[in-house]
């Protein structure tokens, strides 16, 4: 069964500079490389899922600047349906300024056209949501649009994976409506910013899948906490690792894998992605994942 995934989220061009170390405040360093690479959390997760064999629909916006058309073509090259990607006149495409150094990265995001993914844009795409096994969401589009997407998914019995990144406070009713929530440890602290939300977490821990980098993913199986361990690889670039995990996790869920299997699958694709340069360019194909798993049986 082919997994059917709809992703509503950001579409950015990543402006990536590589240097030996991060500059101090006010300091100028010479970089060793510069590249423009398709990115955005939404587009990244869509590409990750598509490379794993899913039938993926992307819903989002690009600008009418020189970055917009290449980003749409990049999605199409990855066999992603783009009829729900809208160019916005007079608005720049979203960008992310990324510095890669010391086996890590820093990122500044300028939303641009992503702020034009309005609730109306989401409503126009209800059929795609209805026809999906999983709806995958993040926080690089307006919050009211995320809420509308969750409402439509609930109306059409479509499972929702919410990756609450970049971290921001959210309404409790949003957490109540989604099926799976995938924060990292930092994002979880920001989500649980009130006693009411902490109480919700305690009573609904089976919804939360807390990513911990190379350590793996922590979730609650109804009786106890389970840490699904990560995989040791030679790290080249961590950009997009979380997005790759979410793409893999969503595909596994849509294919009917157990929660532990879905976490394991997400860990594998995330680990393979950091062993290559770039967010989307480093994401593994399904065949690579299967070979990796076969070697560890």
TrEMBL record:
Positions with a binding annotation for ATP: 184, 211-216, 242-243, 267
GO annotations of cellular component type: cytosol
Active site: residue positions: 243 (proton acceptor)
Binding site for substrate: 12-14, 40-44, 140, 243
EC number: 2.7.1.15
Chief site of localization: cytoplasm
Note describing how the cofactor binds: Requires a divalent cation, most likely magnesium in vivo, as an electrophilic catalyst to aid phosphoryl group transfer. It is the chelate of the metal and the nucleotide that is the actual substrate.
Keywords: ATP-binding, Carbohydrate metabolism, Cytoplasm, Kinase, Magnesium, Metal-binding, Nucleotide-binding, Potassium, Transferase
Regions annotated as coiled coil: none
Keyword Cell membrane belongs to the record: no
Pfam families, per database record: PfkB
Chain ranges of the Carbohydrate kinase PfkB domain: 4-285
Catalytic activity: D-ribose + ATP = D-ribose 5-phosphate + ADP + H(+)
Regulation: Activated by a monovalent cation that binds near, but not in, the active site. The most likely occupant of the site in vivo is potassium. Ion binding induces a conformational change that may alter substrate affinity.
Binding of K(+), residues: 237, 239, 273, 276, 278
Required co-factors: Mg(2+)
Subcellular location per the Swiss-Prot or TrEMBL entry: Cytoplasm
Any one GO biological process: D-ribose catabolic process
Pathway: Carbohydrate metabolism; D-ribose degradation; D-ribose 5-phosphate from beta-D-ribopyranose: step 2/2
Organism superkingdom: Bacteria
GO MF term list: ATP binding; metal ion binding; ribokinase activity
InterPro entries to which the protein is assigned, alphabetical: Carboh/pur_kinase_PfkB_CS (IPR002173), PfkB_dom (IPR011611), Ribo/fructo_kinase (IPR002139), Ribokinase (IPR011877), Ribokinase-like (IPR029056)
Quaternary structure note: Homodimer.
NCBIfam families assigned: D_ribokin_bact
Family: Belongs to the carbohydrate kinase pfkB family. Belongs to the carbohydrate kinase PfkB family. Ribokinase subfamily.
Protein name: Ribokinase
Organism the protein comes from: Filobacillus milosensis
High-level lineage: Bacteria, Bacillati, Bacillota, Bacilli, Bacillales
Gene: rbsK
């Amino acid at each position: 069964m082919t997994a059917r995934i709809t992703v509503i989220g950001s579409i950015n061009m990543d402006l990536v500079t590589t240097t030996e170390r991060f500059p101090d405040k006010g300091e100028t360093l010479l970089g060793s490389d510069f590249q423009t690479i398709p990115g955005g959390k939404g587009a990244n997760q869509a590409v990750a899922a598509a490379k794993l064999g899913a039938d993926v629909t992307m819903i989002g916006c690009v600008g009418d600047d020189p970055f917009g058309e290449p980003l749409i073509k990049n999605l199409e090259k990855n066999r992603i349906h783009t009829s729900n990607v809208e160019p916005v006149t007079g608005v720049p495409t979203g960008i992310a300024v990324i510095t890669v150094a010391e086996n890590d990265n820093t990122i500044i995001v300028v939303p641009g056209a992503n702020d034009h993914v309005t609730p109306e844009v989401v409503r126009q795409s209800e059929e795609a949501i209805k026809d999906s096994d999983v709806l995958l969401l993040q926080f690089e589009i307006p919050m009211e649009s995320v809420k509308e997407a969750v409402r439509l998914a609930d109306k059409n019995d479509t499972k929702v994976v919410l990756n609450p990144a970049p971290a921001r406070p959210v309404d409790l009713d949003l957490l109540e409506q989604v099926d799976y929530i995938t924060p990292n440890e930092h994002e979880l602290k920001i989500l649980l910013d009130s006693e009411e939300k902490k109480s919700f977490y305690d009573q609904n821990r089976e919804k939360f899948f807390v990513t911990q980098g190379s350590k793996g993913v922590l979730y609650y199986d109804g009786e106890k906490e389970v840490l699904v361990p990560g995989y040791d690889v030679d790290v080249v670039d961590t950009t997009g690792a979380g997005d790759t995990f979410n793409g893999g996790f969503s595909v596994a869920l849509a294919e009917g894998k157990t929660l532990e299997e879905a976490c394991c699958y997400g860990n594998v694709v995330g680990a393979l992605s950091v062993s290559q340069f770039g967010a989307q360019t480093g994401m593994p194909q399904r065949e690579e994942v299967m070979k990796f798993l076969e070697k560890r049986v």
